[in-house]
Amino acid sequence: MHDAPTTVFGGTGFLGRAIVRELVEAGRPVRIAARRPELPDWREPGDRVEAVACDLRDEQQVASALKESSAVINAVSLYVEQPRAGLSFEEIHIIGAGRLARLAREAGVTRLIHISGIGTRDASPSAYVRARAAGESAVIDALPKAVILRPSVLFGPGDAFLAALMRLARLPIMPLFGRGETRLQPVHVADVARATTCLSDTRPLERRLFEFGGPEVLQYRQVIEQVLAHLECRRPLLPVPFPVWHLLATLLAPLPSPPLTRDQVILMQQDTIVSEGVGTFDDLGIVPRTLHDSLPTCLAAR
Ligand SMILES: NC(=O)c1ccc[n+]([C@@H]2O[C@H](COP(=O)([O-])OP(=O)(O)OC[C@H]3O[C@@H](n4cnc5c(N)ncnc54)[C@H](OP(=O)(O)O)[C@@H]3O)[C@@H](O)[C@H]2O)c1
User: Fold this and answer.
1) CATH no., domain 6-220+251-300
2) What spacing in Å lies between the alpha carbon of 237 and ligand 1's midpoint?
3) Average model confidence (pLDDT) for the chain?
4) What is the pLDDT of residues 249-259, one digit of tens each?
5) What is the C-alpha to C-alpha distance for residues 58 and 75, in angstroms, rounded to an integer?
6) Which one of 90, 139, 148, 287 has the minimum C-beta count within 10 Å?
7) Does the Cβ of 192 fall within 6 Å of ligand 1?
8) Domain layout of the chain by residue ranges
9) CA-CA distance, 207 to 280, in Å (whole number)?
10) How many angstroms does the Cα of residue 13 sit away from the middle of ligand 1?
11) 116 alpha carbon to ligand 1 midpoint, in Å?
């Protein structure tokens, strides 16, 4: 029985919400920390879940959110920089992630799980990917026993991935990133949440780096074909060269919330599949579900 809460930074986000649910269903007390904290609407009397306001950029707020936590999960995201709001990849993914790890160590937290992403590497043309790599290093420097989780692209009810494909499916043709041959390993958000919950326990771990992908490696065009087949909708698939996508991303960049960014295009140019030699679902005895079997529930929610 855990009495000290597990604090989920970013516990109101897509993955964070699923982690909170999994923890609560496991009977664990949970503290949600976000700038706009919100309690889940599914909570029931007796569920031990609280929510606190916290900006990862604020030292005092982070320290206060960490108080008496047994475990901490960082599921904070920033996909598009917002310079006017002071939100940069460096501020959130490197400085903020490092701050959380340092304050967690000072607070005596026994387990910190840092959520990153598959494909994270120092030498990437994407500023986002480079920041994620530097963020992982900042976390390990501050708290060497931290656990790094890198999920592949997430799907589930209310996700951004299938939502974008659904929007594209309204066009008379489906544009592909390049020839649509980039390999992805889409993974259900609930499977990653279950893995995160397992790893946030206090039992000793043999591994500290995990990558989570679904059971199938699919080319981008195969993902689209599955979605179109499920929707019973026929669309010609149109290969669009990557330089055209880069041009489009550059034109959209001045928008406050661009629907496509240069970093997303770069990410679509590289395979995002589980590497060799890392921890996986197998180590945790979790059998992840397929995209195909999940499409009815994921798309019914829209
Ligand atoms: N979605 C995917 O397909 C995917 C794939 C691989 C890896 N990941 C990783 O999984 C993690 C979670 O991603 P997500 O898609 O679930 O993100 P999300 O839905 O955008 O949620 C982001 C969460 O972070 C909080 N947040 C943002 N800025 C904050 C700040 N300055 N201080 C405190 N909290 C802040 C948000 O709440 P407030 O706005 O109220 O603060 C929200 O709770 C990220 O590390 C992401 O890179 C996601």
Assistant:
1) 3.40.50.720
2) 31
3) 95
4) 999 999 988 98
5) 16
6) 287
7) no
8) 6-220+251-300
9) 10
10) 5
11) 10
